[in-house]
Amino acid sequence: MSNPINVPHLDRELDLSNTGRGVWLVKVPKYIANRWDKASGDIEVGKLKISRIPGQKAQVQLSLSEAVLCLKEPGEQTIPKEHRLDVSNVTRQSLGVFSHATPSNMDSVIPESEKLYMEGRIVQKLECRPYADSIYYKLKSESIRKASMPQRQVQQLERIVQTFKPVSDHKHNIEYQERKKAEGKKARDDKEAVLNVLFAAFEKHQYYNIKDLQKITRQPIVYLKEILKEVCNYNLKNPHKNMWELKPEYRHYKQEAPVEKKEEKESSDSD
């Protein structure tokens, strides 16, 4: 399989001179790790005290240095000085610590120049735990308080803040204004007045679509449909599909008279 970036794979030598050295894997609280990150490389960060009792596990204690305890920002809580380390053996695992060194001239760093070392094999795991004293309880309560605070808070503004003003109109507001303008700015007329306009229109034509009726009445579509459902029928079949016509009880068309004359003539012929 070829290298995707066309860089040849190079085997590097690994210094195994410290393979037999046993090292500890220590887990420390976050507040200790933060203080150690602030500390420079030339100060003492703490001391370990190991007490060995025959027939029992070794007791390990960690005491942070005063230089580390003083590395706190204004308003930051004081951290505990004394800690105990719970020891547990490493079983069914092979863990190691590795490091690499690069030349001092960083401009000429190339992968082949890095030196790899095995610093040792992990033989024990230790977990750093603080003692339950007043300093720890105060630190823990403060961390719980900060974690429970909401990320967003309501703030009352005493004066106008320009940054909170909208820079442009919202899309749905623009659409609403355009739809309102298309429907006309005329308010709803009285129902009886709208019915009179509708009846006058249906005396001229028997069928209308909704757009024509809206232009005639100049009423909003929703309001117009409410009135049409009371006095009109909506056709769903051809030849007058999607058109409105008056219900039979509201129809008074003038073309009925010629039909009656035709019926009278037929009856006279039969006599």
Automatic annotation (TrEMBL):
GO terms for cellular component: transcription factor TFIIF complex. Residues 187-251 form the TFIIF beta subunit HTH domain. Residues 21-101 form the TFIIF beta subunit N-terminal domain. Pfam families: TFIIF_beta, TFIIF_beta_N. Keywords: DNA-binding, Nucleus, Transcription, Transcription regulation. Belongs to the TFIIF beta subunit family. This is General transcription factor IIF subunit 2. It comes from Euphydryas editha (Edith's checkerspot).
